[in-house]
Design a protein that fits this description.
Blueprint lengths: L7 E5 L5 H8 L2 H7 L7 H10 L4 H4 L2 E7 L4 E11 L4 E8 L8 H15 L5 E7 L3 H9 L3 E12 L2 E11 L3
Parallel strand pairs: 4-5
Antiparallel strand pairs: 1-2, 2-3, 3-4, 5-7, 6-7
InterPro entries: Acyl_CoA_acyltransferase, GNAT_dom
GO molecular function: acyltransferase activity, transferring groups other than amino-acyl groups
Protein name: GNAT family N-acetyltransferase
C-alpha cells in the first residue's frame, strides 16, 4: 500500500463503506464544513459510491478514506475542483468526532500532499477553514499552508456569522 504512514493508510472508496459514509455525512456537526444543510439518503450515497471509482481527471474529484492499520475508518480526505491545466485542486478533510485529536488528520494530509506532488503533479492545493475551527487552522498552519485571505462573515450558522480563512500551498516549494 503506497499511501500509508506510521498509524494510517488512505484508500479508495468501496461499496462496503456505505455505513461509515452515511454516519459521517449525516452528522450535523460537520455540515457547516461541507456546506450541507440536509441529510443524505443511503440511496444517494450508494450512487456516489458507484461513481467513486471514476478517474479524477474525468470527475474532477477524489475521496479517500482514512483508516488505521487496524482497518478502522476514522475519516475522509478529498480533492475537489481539480484543474489539470492549472495543476491545482481544493482539499478537504474530516475526521469522525470520536477519532479527533489523535494526529490522523496530520498524517492523512501529509500522505495526500505527497500523492498530489508525486503522482498528480500538482503545483498547488487550497482550502477554506472556518475561523472558529481552531484544530483545522492549526493543522494547515503546521503543514506550512499560507493564509491568502479571509472571507468576512462568509458562513451563516445558528451561532451567527463566521469568517473563512483561505489557505494555499505551493507544492513545488
Amino acid at each position: 500500500m503506497f499511501l500509508q504512514s506510521e498509524h494510517i493508510y488512505l484508500r479508495a472508496l468501496e461499496p462496503d463503506d456505505l455505513e461509515f459514509l452515511y454516519s459521517l455525512e449525516n452528522n450535523p456537526d460537520i455540515w457547516q464544513v461541507s456546506n450541507t444543510t440536509t441529510p443524505y439518503a443511503k440511496h444517494v450515497l450508494q450512487q456516489y459510491l458507484e461513481q467513486a471509482a471514476a478517474d479524477i481527471f474525468s470527475v474532477k474529484q477524489l475521496r479517500l478514506l482514512i483508516h488505521t492499520h487496524q482497518h478502522q475508518a476514522v475519516g475522509a480526505i478529498d480533492l475537489f475542483d481539480f484543474e489539470p491545466l492549472h495543476q491545482r485542486a481544493g482539499l478537504g478533510i474530516v475526521i469522525a468526532p470520536t477519532y479527533r485529536q489523535q494526529h490522523y488528520a496530520t498524517e492523512a494530509l501529509q500522505l495526500l500532499l505527497k500523492y498530489c506532488r508525486e503522482h498528480l503533479l500538482l503545483h498547488q492545493v487550497f482550502c477554506s477553514v472556518s475561523s472558529k475551527n481552531v484544530s483545522s487552522l492549526r493543522l494547515f498552519e503546521k503543514a506550512e499552508f499560507s493564509v491568502v485571505g479571509t472571507r468576512q462573515q462568509w458562513i451563516r450558522t445558528a451561532a451567527g456569522w463566521q469568517d473563512i480563512v483561505e489557505f494555499q500551498k505551493i507544492l513545488s516549494e
